[in-house]
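User: Modeling request: complex.
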Amino acid sequence: MLFVVVVPLTVQDYYLSILNLILIAIVGALGLNILVGYTGQISIGHGAFMSVGAYTAANLAVRLDMPFWLTLPAGGLMAAAIGVVVGIPSLRIKGLYLAIATLAGQLIIEWTINHVPAISGGAQASIPVARPSLFGISLHTQGDLYFFLLFFAVLAIVATLNLVRSRIGRAFVAVRDQDIAAEIIGINIYRYKLIAFAISSFYAGVCGVLYTYYFGIANYEQFQLITSIDYLAMIIIGGLGSVLGSIFGAVFVTLLPIVIRTLMENVGSLFFTDSEVANVISAFRLAAFGGLIIFFLVVEPEGLNRLWRNIRSYFRVWPFSY
Amino acid sequence: MTRFVKSWLGAAAIAGSLTFGGGQAFAQQKELVFGLQCDRTGPTVTVGSVLCPGYHDYVALVNSKGGVEGYKVRVIEIDNEYKVPPAMEAHERFKKEGEIIEGIYGTPQTAALTAKLTEDKIPGTAPGFGIAAAADGKRFPYIFPIAASYWSQAGGALKFAKDRLGGSLKDKKIAYLFYDNPAGKEPLAILEDVAKLEGFELRTFAVPAPGVEMGAQVLDITARFKPDFIIAHLFGRSPSVAIKELKGKGYPLSKVVGLVWASAEADILAAGGMALAEGYNTMQFAGVGKDFPVLKEIEAMYKAQGKPAPKEMDSTVYYNRGVFIAALHVEAVRQAIKAKGGGVPTGEDVKKGMESVKDFTLGGLVPPLRLSPADHEGGGWVQIWSVKGGKLVKSTDWFQGYREVIQKQLAADAAKS
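Assistant: Request completed. Predicted assembly structure:
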């Protein structure tokens, strides 16, 4: 714990900004993992739920001058409500079909925000939001925002850990593993599927609100289909159905492009001329990113979380493995 | 829980140790850092992969001639993939390296960085994208559109249409074909205002993302609405589709004007070549073609190094825009250094430097911009270049359209917030 608190006092803003992006991504990835990893309902509408949270909070903050501790849950709740609606098809369809239904949800929400000025605040569809303030102090440096985001990320992690151990969490897993069996042992699968959509969208909404406060603006172009795919990538790489996996995934997907770029900037000039480096960095980064994802998934299909556990259990008994 | 906390700390430790191993930059004396965001792998790769080399080449040219007032310029380029979180990371990286000016890339990225740039007191440029209201330097002190905003582009397009249609728009029909996103919708405010002012009929035709299917819209325009003029505001692959479709339906392309992101050679070539697009009008905020002294100097610089000129130079629309952005950055910094009597400029100084840029045309590549603390757009100048005989030919000189309507819109927007 000490480390998490001391970090921001010792490193530069730049590193804090990366940590901040990771913290926000953790909240979103946890939410998606509850739905996809724990309950087994595929969703590619996660980005849209974030935008619902973002615009709800932005409108409340700008029009009604509400503080973040009201807009944040409000954004989450609104996203949860929309999430339940988008989740209704899950009662009848599964797998790929559900994925397409949630894709429709993503596109409908995008379209709605783009075309309803009452939500989007005008043609530009972006609403500037003041920085969050606590006891009259505006949180605007990366250091301030780090603690702000850390609080919610930790809250999300603890809440998820408790959720998956609760009756609801067990029911989610039962629905995922075999829905008919779950129904036979007395789990109302309709109810739990919708609860899963609600909770997952709540996280997404909160994630969207955090983005809004972090960037100081709500802008739906940030939450388009590609964002939903990025979050799916996070939980698949990190490990489906695991809290630690969500965290690993968020860290991995955020950090990898940066690490590859830093490496290329330092060693790239050995192989290429300066003007080529810029082009090569970008192309190589994409290729390496894709390649590493395949590599990790082939080495350990259950994600980084499993890889981590394997390594840990190996070293726990090392060097006396027999 | 404890096991979990331990592993979380482990992850944080890895992150922490990685960061310390990162590239160390030693701020050398007499060196200035410029940050440049770019898109070389995202949806607008056709723009970024040509524009950014133009930026680098101009800075290299300046450095080869002794730099800016004796300072060498170091450009750090980061590819934000047209995503927002990497744009924030890029900005913080630039800041860590000590940047004094930043070239932003992308409309949502500009929106997301507006608050941060203002807090960090680093001027950021958003030529041809971002929000039009940012022309108001009082409201957006650290955002510089420096080129015609979407509002000014709409005003310019209507002025051009008016001239082409014999000096009056009264009872004419104008179609607005646009990409259905915030940037596509932004000019609507100006188009509607001018429609009332001039008394023409305006009808809008939205093309949904990704904009490669617009047969229905074009048929609606050409067969039903039969407009006197078409304004096309499209991005990415869609401009080429529009040119092809309009040509296919037999609409004269000389009565079509594409706003600045529907205006590159690549768009016309993708539509089937210059011959097919004969007459198509493109709107530009920087000069087109190779007939500029600065481009000759860049060619000479490459020749002196024994290298051929880069192939990106042939795509003159975007390459020249890269040169344009770099030139304005350098000019702003030059003004800042001069104002400080040769001292090392800060972001705040460069902001003031940018606000004092005027009479800087770079042999016609840059419009006669006149920036001021109130006007960060510099006047909203555009040029129209048309396809004629297999290449883009200048049809008009630098001009502004409907400034009073735009000023009114700016004031209304300022009053609203």
